[in-house]
């Protein structure tokens, strides 16, 4: 897309989980560049604050919110604090994710729990708090970042694929309920292929980057989902590198 998407998000507030680096940082930059106020929800304090300071120098309204998406009580408290301050989340982007690349026979219960809680339950906790408030206000948009693993799995991807497949199913259900409950709410799942981000390169330092795409392309896809007129809906988008081996 090469930065071609144009959407005016002035006056709207977005919350991006895992927003401090990688794809999350690209999405934060894209939303802020479109005029949104952005809450960077992450556990990486230093990186999040550096990103906020960088964007503040460009006149962007970006703030750090320390949040572990696995903690349902902490998620609920963030939304209560926003309400006390008279603020709302108009755009939620569930991006935070982790992975443990191991054969199933070598996985521990703790590793499985960490992946599923972060990648599936965490986004669900955020959606629970966000969706009911969007219904009450009559509008908003939820974007869940999925993966090619939500459609097709491979070896050593058991927990990751299970979590992303579950999130895709939950996203489809939420889309149908939004059609019933409130036409002003958009729900979009974005199936993103491999990206040149720490999420891949820290685990696979020898990965062929020519097979990966820039996270900025996926961030632009988020903007596209937000740019669609109210009379239409984008339930799911797929954006993968040309050479993506795990799609379809």
Topology:
Blueprint: E1 13-17, H1 22-33, E2 37-42, H2 45-56, E3 62-66, H3 72-84, E4 91-94, H4 109-137, E5 140-147, H5 158-181, E6 185-192, H6 198-201, H7 215-227, E7 236-239
Parallel strand pairs: 1-2, 1-4, 2-3, 4-5, 5-6, 6-7
Helix pairs in contact: 1-7, 3-4, 4-5
In short:
With 248 residues, the protein is α/β, with parallel strands linked by helices. α3 packs parallel to α4 and α4 runs parallel beside α5.
Description:
It is a single chain. The protein has 248 residues and is of the alpha/beta class. The protein is built from 7 helices and 7 strands. Strands 3-2-1-4-5-6-7 form a 7-stranded parallel β-sheet, with helices on both faces. β4 (91-94), α4 (109-137) and β5 (140-147) form a beta-alpha-beta unit. α3 runs parallel beside α4 (109-137). It starts with 12 loop residues before the first strand and ends in a 9-residue tail after the last strand.
